[in-house]
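Could someone model LJEIAPTW with this protein?
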Amino acid sequence: MMRSKVLSLVARAASNRMMSTATKLTTVEVNDKTGIATLTMNRPPVNGLNLELLQDLKSSIDEVEGNKSRGLILTSSSSTIFSAGLDILEMYKPDKDRIRAFWTQLQETWLALYGSSVPTAAAINGHSPAGGCLLATSCEYRVMVPNFTIGLNETQLGIVAPKWFMASFLSVLPQREAERALNQGRMFTTEEALKVGLIDETANSKEEAIEKCVAFIGTFAKVNPLARSLTKQQFRAADLQQLQNERQQDLEKFLFFVNQPAVQKGLGIYLEGLKKKAKKQ
Ligand SMILES: CCCCCC/C=C\CC(=O)SCCNC(=O)CCNC(=O)[C@H](O)C(C)(C)COP(=O)(O)OP(=O)(O)OC[C@H]1O[C@@H](n2cnc3c(N)ncnc32)[C@H](O)[C@@H]1OP(=O)(O)O
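Reply:
Sure, complex below.
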């Protein structure tokens, strides 16, 4: 009896491992030569940030932190989308428990990426609205391929970006630019993003974007890693601490807001518009 229980537990553990491999929504590849890890999001069709993708992102960031990589490059397996931002289906007519877990996981993933001790860069190889822009601006450097768009478009959906979304944006853009863009819900083309400083460089392909991210991370080769990481932490400490201190209030505020009938109606209309557009293509 005891033995069969143990065997069934072992079998279940083995199948869980297989399941987690089969459903992995991110991959981490460490380059032997450079020691830099490339973290690739892979949730077709648009890398919508749902609970599971956020969980995988967080555990991949933890993996990179733990495996002594020299840096982290965030990118996407799609040829046209970096990330479409939060999966609106998580917020539209939400399940009570799941939406709590979803937002809590988003907070955790942001804390891990924005506060990462290793140098981070985003190879933005496709559109990057809202939550996609949040991921990109949480990194220290951004290289983007032409003919795509990036920005925090929340006001266009009738929703409000939380303070920590703004903090990431403000770590990249001057206050005046950030405030105007957020109020407008403005999406920038690659060229506009470069001009305003939302991205650091452009590249003609994903491969070139990754090469440029590698070169950025290489600029720290001769800098003491602990000194570099503690300096980064000091720059970001206030933003990180603010969310740490207000996590529960931030969650309750989100839940209150997302459950407002007007917000639900707006999300429904927005989703419908996306679906109609997709059908026409
Ligand atoms: C409420 C309280 C406060 C919350 C504060 C935080 C809030 C928000 C942060 C967010 O991230 S909200 C999400 C914002 N994202 C967007 O507005 C992007 C919307 N998507 C697009 O603009 C386009 O899809 C795209 C990314 C430019 C890609 O265009 P493409 O033509 O390649 O693909 P589509 O045909 O449009 O889409 C394919 C397929 O995916 C569905 N989809 C797209 N984006 C999302 C999404 N964010 N969530 C869920 N689903 C999405 C789209 O409907 C299509 O579905 P099907 O019709 O094929 O079923």
